[in-house]
Design a protein that fits this description.
The complex is a heterodimer of chains A (304) and B (217). The radius of gyration of chain A is 18 Å and the shape is globular. In chain A, the strands form 3 sheets. Chain A has a 7-stranded antiparallel beta sheet. A 5-stranded antiparallel beta sheet of chain A has the order 9-10-11-12-16, with helices on one face. Chain A has a 4-stranded antiparallel beta sheet with strand order 4-5-3-6, covered by helices on one side. Chain A folds into 2 domains: 226 residues, Aminohydrolase, N-terminal nucleophile (Ntn) domain (Glutamine Phosphoribosylpyrophosphate, subunit 1, domain 1, 4-Layer Sandwich); 74 residues, Ribosomal protein S6/Translation elongation factor EF1B (Alpha-Beta Plaits, 2-Layer Sandwich), CATH 3.30.70. In chain A, 51% of the residues are buried. By secondary structure, chain A is of the alpha+beta class. In chain A, 26% of the residues lie in helices and 31% in strands. Chain B is of the alpha/beta class and 217 residues long. Chain B has a 10-stranded mixed beta sheet with strand order 1-2-3-4-5-6-7-8-10-9, with helices on one face. The longest helix of chain B has 13 residues. The radius of gyration of chain B is 18 Å and the shape is globular. Chain B has a single domain, classed as Glutamate synthase, alpha subunit, C-terminal domain (Pectate Lyase C-like, 3 Solenoid), CATH 2.160.20. Chain B contains 3 helices and 10 strands; from the N terminus they run αβββββββββαβα. The chains are: A alpha+beta (304), B alpha/beta (217).
């Protein structure tokens, strides 16, 4: 079991963002009965002045400062100018002025020893950690992040180990700004992964959910719309899933043919909030408004 | 939630009329109440609410999460808005009325009682139901009555598709009058015609022989 949630402010923009970080933490904290192994969020639609946000983490606790310093050197060698850096233990957040090819930069970082990339985004970033959302907020100040939309996850691990790299959201390496949170299990993960690896894709984890992000980002990069990519996934992914995707343009969801995992949505003129359970939506809406429940094989998108 | 349910139990034993405010869509609201009483819940409830009850009449002014009224023995549940998946799962008696729509697997494994849905029902309505009655005034999703053993499902709107071993049967006049009378008790005056769905009972027995069985013949 896991809990997922997402929120999008329909009239917001990068210039006029909303308190997405704080809203996601509130929604996710109300669903910790669905999982408290790890938590994570994507805050998208952030103001970056054209810079990239890079989120890096290392599991090499003893040599964390060396590893993180190495990753900064890698960024600089690739032609990036570091505008801002925030270090918290094994976590590094860089704001980088970079004009080059993003997949090239991602590959250089991936090949830097000890480095794991949580996200590279032009307007978004992924923050994830073990523990509950409020604990994570205390460590990473998520509540202070504003944006146009975001997605989040609380995890009860079923298919792979409990650690930070297997926490959601998963970033679609090396495509900027595409991230996914997933509730369920994929049964054709290994065959899909082999097919993608044959095409030259790299995976950072052994978590089945990572492939959803790569799958969608790959489709989007080939020119498909978000809605079409989500609809295609209903046939191509096997197993149980309700997942949310965040892109630069907005947010979407897809639910498997068995309707195995829950999702409810509430919408006003200004805001759409979605979550595994209504209890999370009640953190956003105090008024009695209509609740919708997507059914089996249903996809929805909300674009800015 | 445990404290609330303990208090509800105590008040129910006195036969009181109880109002719960601000339920906040939390799970397990009003679980395990075994006495006839009236409970009004002003707002939405979460999963397994009003489950494992025997006797009370519970009205919920809002939505419910998954498995509303699971394993109810007797009593009545009235929900004014929508229910999630698995509403009235495994109930053995009593009635569940939903004023809005219900999600997937409504009435899964019902063993008696009745589920009445004013709106639409989702995928796999009446999945593996064993007894009892489901009435859907709107449309039912795909695979209605899949693998049902006994019981009846009445759908007034469109039937998305019939499930495995589910068959349509003509409803008798007496049955229709009975369904309409049930609807009337919940303030539904219309008298729609219904598609009645029951078990084809083909799944009661294996319809093909194993390889060794064939060899033995």
């Amino acid at each position: 079991m896991c809990g997922i949630s997402g929120i999008i402010h329909k009239h917001s923009s990068i210039e006029r963002p909303a308190n997405v970080g704080a809203e996601l933490v509130k929604m996710l904290e109300s669903m910790t009965h669905r999982g408290r192994d790890s938590s994570g969020v994507t805050v998208a639609g952030q103001s970056t002045d054209g810079d990239l946000i890079i989120r890096i983490w290392t599991d090499d606790e003893a040599n964390a400062s060396d590893v993180l310093a190495r990753s900064e050197e890698t960024v600089q060698r690739a032609g990036g100018v570091i505008v801002d850096r925030v270090v918290r233990d094994e976590f590094l957040r860089l704001t980088v002025n970079y004009e080059g090819d993003i997949p090239k930069l991602a590959e250089a970082l991936l090949n830097t020893e000890g480095v794991e990339i949580h996200s590279i985004g032009e307007t978004s970033e992924v923050i994830k950690d073990v523990g509950t959302p409020v604990q994570m907020d205390g460590r990473h100040d998520i509540s202070r992040l504003s944006g146009t939309h975001g997605i989040g996850h609380v995890r009860m691990a079923t298919e792979s180990k409990v650690d930070i790299s297997h926490a959601h959201p998963f970033w679609a390496y090396p495509f900027p700004d595409v991230t996914v949170v997933h509730n369920g299990q994929l049964t054709n993960y290994h065959s899909m992964k082999r097919a993608y690896e044959d095409q030259g894709h790299h995976f950072q984890t052994r978590n089945d959910s990572e492939i959803i992000a790569v799958y969608l980002a790959d489709r989007l990069a080939r020119g498909a719309t978000l809605e079409q990519s989500l609809a295609d996934s209903l046939d191509d992914l096997d197993g149980t899933f309700t997942y949310l995707v965040s892109t630069r343009d907005g947010m979407g969801c897809a639910k498997d043919r068995w309707s195995a995992k829950p999702l409810v949505t509430m919408e006003t003129d200004d805001v759409v909030a979605v979550a595994s359970e209504e209890v999370a939506l009640r953190q956003i809406f105090s008024d009695e408004i209509a609740r919708q429940e997507p059914q089996q094989s249903e996809v929805l998108t909300w674009l800015l | 939630m445990r404290a609330l349910n303990r208090r509800l139990k105590d008040l129910a034993a006195e036969g009181a009329e109880i109002t719960v405010t601000n339920p906040g869509a939390r799970h397990n609201t009003g679980v395990g109440i075994f006495h006839p009483c009236k409970i009004n819940i002003e707002g939405s409830v979460g999963y397994y609410s009003a489950s494992m009850i025997d006797g009370p009449e519970i009205t919920i002014h809002g939505n419910a999460g998954w498995a509303l009224g699971e394993n109810m023995m007797s009593g009545k549940i009235v929900l004014t808005k929508d229910a999630g998946a698995s509403v009235a799962s495994t109930i053995r008696g009593g009635e569940v009325f939903v004023g809005g729509n219900v999600g997937a697997r409504a009435g899964i494994s019902m063993k008696g009682g009745a589920l009445i849905v004013k709106g639409n029902s989702g995928f796999l309505t009446g999945f593996m139901m064993q007894k009892g009655r489901i009435i859907v005034c709107g449309d039912a999703g795909e695979a209605v009555g899949d693998s049902m053993y006994e019981g009846e499902i009445y759908v007034a709107g469109n039937v998305g598709s019939l499930g495995n071993d589910a068959v349509v049967e003509d409803a008798s006049e007496d049955e229709l009058l009975d369904v309409w009378a049930t609807l009337e008790r919940y303030g539904i005056a219309e008298r729609p015609t219904f598609t009645k769905i029951v078990s084809g009972k083909k799944l009661y027995h294996m319809d093909s022989l194993e390889r060794l069985e064939k060899a033995a013949i």
